[in-house]
Amino acid sequence: MNLGQTVFSQLMEHLPHKQFQKCVARFSGNYNLKSFSCWNQFLAMAFAQLTYRESLRDIKACLRSLAEQTLSYGIP
User: Rounded to whole angstroms, how far apart are CA atoms 76 and 24?
Assistant: First the structure.
């Protein structure tokens, strides 16, 4: 079992996070935010695109199973 970074997290490291945050601020993307930021939504949609997910239910099930795996192996 690989306990290092996932391929997805390695890919996301190369994104210009500061520039993304500047765009969000410029267009008030996080205005009236409840709990799911623009960055988190972008990561979820990028994950869905890269893993060929077909529905919101499919995305949710896959992300939930990954979260349970990382918790069971002691990965924060």
Answer: 27
pLDDT value at residue 2: 58
Sequence-separated (6 or more) residues with CB below 8 Å from residue 21? 39
pTM here is: 0.70
Query: Using H for helix, E for strand and C for coil, what is the string for the chain?
Result: CCCCCCHHHHHHCCCCHHHHHHHHHHCCCCCCCCCCCHHHHHHHHHHHHHCCCCCHHHHHHHHHHHHHHHHHCCCC
The owner of tokens 């499919």 is: 58
Q: Where along the chain do its domains lie?
A: 37-76
Please give the average per-residue pLDDT across 52-69, as a whole number: 81
Give the contacts of 53 (CB within 8 A, at least 6 positions apart). 47, 59, 62
